[in-house]
Amino acid sequence: MSQEQAPGPAEPARTGAADEVQRLRAEVAELRDRVGTQRRRRARLLRVRAMLAAVLIALVAVVGVASVVGLWGSRTALNTDRWVAAVGPLPQDPDVNKAVSTYLTGQIFDQLDVRKRLSEALPPRADFLAGPLTGAVHDSVGRTVSKLMATDQFTALWEGANRVAHDRIVTVLEKRNANVQVQGDTVTLNLLPMVNNVLKSLEAQLPSLFGKKLDLPTLTSGELPPGLHDRIEKALGVTLPADFAQIRLYNRHDLGQLQQMVLAFKRALVALLIAVPVLLALALWAAPDRRRTLLQLGVWLVVTVTVLRAVLRAVRGQLLGQVPPGVYRDGLQAALWTVFTTLRDLGDLLLWLGIALAVLMYLIGPGRLPVALRRRTAQGALAAGQFAARAGSRIAKERTVRPWLARHADVLRVAGAVVAVLVALLLSTWPALFVVGALLAAYEIALTLLARGGGSPPAGEADGKTPAKTGASG
User: Fold this and answer.
1) The model scores a pTM over 0.70
2) How far apart are CA 154 and CA 150, in angstroms?
3) d(C-alpha 274, C-alpha 281), whole Å
């Protein structure tokens, strides 16, 4: 009969070890789940931050470009002095000159009825010459007006007329003076002083055109003398329309909407200027990768400026579409091109800034191409440094070059500055100015380093003569 074997002490130990292993496995699984959850949360948070940064940086570009346009509008379109400075050179433009001279010539001819006057002055058998003579007189008057527009006197009249009209428009739009009233239904650019001087000039060149002496003043400013309309009417012996020689700028029925738009625009401009740095700071704070966010800013600047240019082209096309093809449309196109010159320059600056920022952020990134370019650039810089060091050592060994540079350093600095200014004037773009400035700084630094110590011989290269002994010999 066999005897049952009692369990030994090793059995409970094995059972306890298995339970401990199970417990540890459960803890490991729980820790893995917890770590995985944290990683997923961190990944979701990073995605949210990246999306938020992308949206904010896009807003920075859009709001920044809009604020630049707003500043241009506030400083140019709503500032009388700057507006006059912008439109003052317009009469010197050939297309504008032709359009304005055509307008003034037409206004004068319509009221004088030159063809009828010539028919009455010619014998009955020569009546057929009235048409050709009328055309010749019309061309002569047009040339006279065109030449008059090139004078300083006409420029003063043009600037004065624009100053008066623009100041009235801005006053009405900004509601600065409740007592300002718009005469009739429109705000106009009154060219009557220019017509007055044109008639005086025509009287001197074509005295028989009017058949009598005109009693008209010679005007030298853009201010409209009281009663000038009636005085011209009496001198010509005709009845002039109320809007004679006046170009309509704004209609009264549009002023209510324009007033609200201007007030909203000025309030929005302040908000835009404050929003740009705030949005930029928030975008950089939320961005998990600031380099990529700045790269996106550069790309968005390029996109926004491109869209702005397309919008401005569309607006310009809409404005030109309201004018019949011909002289007047060409003049308006030239005028718009001149007025928007500063805005185009600002747009070009923002465009190049966006391109430079995007390229720079890309080149410092981790991609294969940026890494290869940086390596090649470092190798090239090292080779250039070694070459410069060898050239510098050779120059240092020369006893004539370095002292010569030291003696003529001031002349060389001035020459470098003069060359930089001439190049900058020829190129006249912001990117070119930056490049020229950087090259000028490098030139000045290199010249200073090479000329340093050139006034005295380098150490160890003093005169080889033995100095004379002084005192008693030992």
Assistant:
1) no
2) 7
3) 12
Q: Are 332 and 320 in contact (CB under 8 A)?
A: yes
Contact 327, 98 (CB under 8 A): yes
Bridge partners for 163 per DSSP: none
Residues 6+ apart with CB under 8 A from 101: 142, 145, 146, 149
Report which secondary-structure segment, H or E, holds 186.
strand 186-190
Element (H, E) at 218: none
Burial class of residue 102 in the structure, from the number of CB atoms within 10 Å of its CB (0-12 exposed, 13-18 middle, 19+ buried): middle
> Would you write out the chain's pLDDT as a tens digit for each of its 474 residues?
445 555 555 566 667 677 777 777 777 777 777 777 777 778 788 888 888 888 999 999 998 888 888 888 777 777 788 888 888 888 888 888 888 888 888 877 777 766 666 666 666 666 666 667 667 777 777 787 788 777 777 787 788 778 877 777 777 666 554 444 445 456 667 777 777 777 777 777 666 666 667 777 777 666 677 777 777 777 777 777 777 777 776 555 555 555 566 667 767 778 888 888 998 899 889 888 888 888 889 999 999 999 888 888 887 888 778 777 888 788 888 888 888 888 888 888 889 899 988 888 888 888 788 888 888 888 888 887 777 777 666 665 655 666 777 777 788 888 888 888 887 777 666 667 777 888 888 888 887 877 765 545 444 444 444 444 444 443
Distance CA 431, CA 462 (A): 48
Tokens 């061309």 correspond to: 139
10-72 and 252-286 are packed helices; what angle lies between their axes, rounded to 10 degrees? 150
In this structure, are residues 363 and 373 in contact, taking their beta carbons and an 8 Å threshold?
yes
Beta strands in 207-356 (DSSP E): 246-251
Q: Which two tokens stand for residue 47?
A: 């995605």
- The Cα-based distances of 225 to 47, 48, 152, 163 in angstroms read 70, 68, 20, 15
Q: Residue 249: what are its φ and ψ, rounded to 5°?
A: -105, -45
Could you give the count of Cα atoms lying within 13 Å of 74 in the half-sphere of its Cβ? 15
Residues in the chain: 474
> If phi over 0 gives left and psi between -120 and 50 gives alpha, with beta otherwise, what is residue 212?
beta
Instruction: Give bridge partners of residue 248 from the DSSP assignment.
Output: 188
Contact 93, 332 (CB under 8 A): no
Tell me the C-alpha distance between 231 and 240, whole Å: 10
Residue (of 421, 416, 422) closest to 447 by Cα position: 416
DSSP calls for 455-472: TSPPTT-S--SPPPP-S-
